[in-house]
């Protein structure tokens, strides 16, 4: 898991500019690559900084390692894409708990659990995003694993990984026709491409093979030589609000409902595995709203948030109409 997330951090760092350039959904704020990179970096560094367990006392636990990474990603997630990926990591860790190695069946279970949880974290999920890529990978992995009859060999694991990445690529290509904004701009979904890269990093590390850079060849809009797609797009109004807060399940459901009424792109997911003595869980909250004040007041009426961030959704542009360098680091998606 350490090597997977480390490789994903490097790959996303190398591709962040191109991911930013095609980021137009749910808002054209040009920072999906940056947000995914920073979120994966948080997960990778949580494992790098962890004190190694004494191998003689604690067996290797793939699920525990991934859960630690997911928790760090959740606490430091950036934007829609980073938040959804952190949900994906945390959920994927659950079927792996207590297991010393990854097998085809465990991977299929992890990918399926992760895609279901990611879909449910978003109040208004739509096809044509990284959710569709997660789902396609999970379904393909399950289909191939079902034909292995419990085979836990590395060969079987390789077949499942190949199927998951191939299905993810097909799902990325389909995104362009699933969302009107992508179809009008002739691009595929940025978050979907980022998820494809992350899955190919997993395949590369597990199988000991190089990343397949040809996966990205021909993806619409994914070319550094293309004009920056945001140049002719109108500014997006509003802000992105993110925070962590401890709430009971009932209060969390109430907060989700109120945020749905106030804004959009609402994502809420548990940021911790267990409740405190008062029955409250830690939740990571993400929403796009016209103004931060009402949203923060609503959140604070239910508890005291931490790790609060408020970021403009508008992509900064210079007077000539070109996207500014600062815009590549905004935190809207």
Core attributes:
333 residues; disordered C terminus; 4-stranded antiparallel beta sheet; alpha+beta; 11 helices; 4 strands
Cα shape = globular
Terminus-to-terminus distance: 25 Å
Largest sheet: 4 strands, antiparallel
List low-confidence stretches. 54-58, 316-333
Number of strands: 4
Per DSSP, the total helix count is: 11
- Which structural class do you get from the secondary structure elements? alpha+beta
Strand order of the largest sheet: 2-3-1-4
Helix content range: 40-55%
Mean pLDDT: 86
N to C succession of SSEs: HHHHHHHHHEHEEHE
Using the CA coordinates, give the radius of gyration: 19 Å
What amount of the residues lies in strands? 5-15%
Compact overview of the structure:
The protein is α+β, with helices and mostly antiparallel strands and 333 residues long. The chain has eleven helices and four strands.
Commentary on this structure:
The structure is a single chain. The chain is α+β, with helices and mostly antiparallel strands and 333 residues long. The protein is 52% helix and 10% strand. The protein has 11 helices and 4 strands; from the N terminus they run αααααααααβαββαβ. It has helices spanning 2-21, 32-48, 62-75, 79-93, 104-121, 130-146, 154-178, 180-185, 190-207, 249-262, 292-300, and strands spanning 239-247, 264-270, 281-289, 306-312. It has a 4-stranded antiparallel β-sheet with strand order 2-3-1-4, sandwiched between helices. The longest helix is centred in the middle third of the chain and has 25 residues, at 154-178. It is globular. Mean pLDDT is 86; it is low at 54-58 and 316-333.
């Amino acid at each position: 898991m350490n090597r997977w997330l480390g490789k994903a951090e490097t790959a996303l760092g190398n591709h962040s500019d191109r991911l930013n350039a095609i980021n137009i959904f749910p808002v054209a704020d040009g920072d999906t690559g940056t947000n995914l990179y920073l979120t994966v970096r948080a997960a990778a560094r949580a494992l790098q900084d962890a004190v190694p367990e004494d191998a003689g006392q604690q067996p290797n636990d793939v699920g525990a390692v991934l859960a630690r990474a997911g928790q760090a990603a959740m606490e430091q997630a950036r934007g829609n894409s980073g938040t959804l990926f952190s949900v994906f990591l945390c959920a994927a860790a659950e079927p792996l708990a207590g297991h010393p190695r990854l097998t085809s069946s465990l991977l299929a279970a992890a990918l399926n659990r992760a895609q279901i949880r990611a879909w449910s974290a978003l109040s208004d999920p739509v096809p044509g995003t990284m959710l569709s890529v997660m789902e396609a990978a999970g379904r393909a992995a399950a289909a191939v694993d079902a034909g292995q009859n419990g085979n836990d060999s590395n060969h079987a694991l390789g077949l499942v990984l190949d199927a998951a990445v191939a299905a993810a690529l097909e799902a990325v290509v389909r995104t362009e026709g699933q969302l009107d904004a992508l179809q009008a701009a002739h691009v595929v979904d940025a978050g979907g491409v980022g998820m494809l890269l992350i899955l190919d990093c997993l395949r590369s590390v597990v199988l000991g093979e190089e990343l397949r850079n040809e996966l990205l060849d021909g993806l619409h809009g994914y070319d550094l030589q293309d004009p920056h797609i945001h140049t002719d797009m109108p500014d997006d109004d509003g802000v992105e609000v993110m925070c962590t807060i401890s709430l009971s399940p009932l209060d969390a459901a109430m907060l989700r409902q109120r945020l749905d009424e106030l804004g959009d792109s609402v994502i809420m997911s548990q940021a911790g595995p267990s409740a405190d003595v008062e029955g409250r869980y830690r939740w990571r909250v993400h929403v796009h709203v016209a103004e931060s004040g009402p949203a923060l007041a609503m959140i604070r009426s239910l508890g005291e948030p931490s790790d609060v961030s408020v970021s403009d959704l508008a992509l900064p542009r210079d007077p000539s109409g070109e996207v500014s360098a600062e815009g590549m680091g905004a935190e809207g998606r």
